[in-house]
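[retry 2/3] Cytochrome P450: previous attempt timed out, resubmitting with same input.
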Amino acid sequence: MRKMQQELDSVVGNVRLPSMNDRTKLVYTDATQTEVFRYRGSAPLTVPHKALRDTKLQGFRIQAGTVVLNNLYSVHMDPGYWGDPETFRPERFINHDGSFRKDERVIPFGKGRRSCLGESLARMTTFLLFSSLMQHFTFSLDPAIPVTNTDGKMGFTLSPPEFKVFAQARL
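[retry 2/3] Cytochrome P450: success.
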């Protein structure tokens, strides 16, 4: 969190709010948001789709009319691709030259023609809210209440466990 706040202080300062024009300069902030989407996306599966015709996918025959769900959790937590998927590491989305590295395997809104229509709006508003909150507050957990489980409950959406957070205004 401190690294992100230092980046926000350096690029945006504290006189104005972050804007979408700042995004290319807020590489660590963008990488952190992307890692949040990968690490704990809001839904483990996409909405159901249906195969319109018989097809083959990686050697498997899929009949027309078959209901198809994309397993986002499996894509985002694949150790064969990510190496250490259970580790929260925003740096995985930063190139050696310091630029942001987009990864096509981060698909919290689905993929292709059937992905979420509101994806660009959701990414934009999430970035603006997230960066503004980090600019103005330092967040911490209540030390009196240990957090023992951060996995949450898996269902149609991922429900985080209850925990208490303190938001301290940055001066």
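[retry 2/3] Cytochrome P450: Helices lie at 2-11, 27-39, 72-76, 79-82, 119-136.
[retry 2/3] clearing retry counter.
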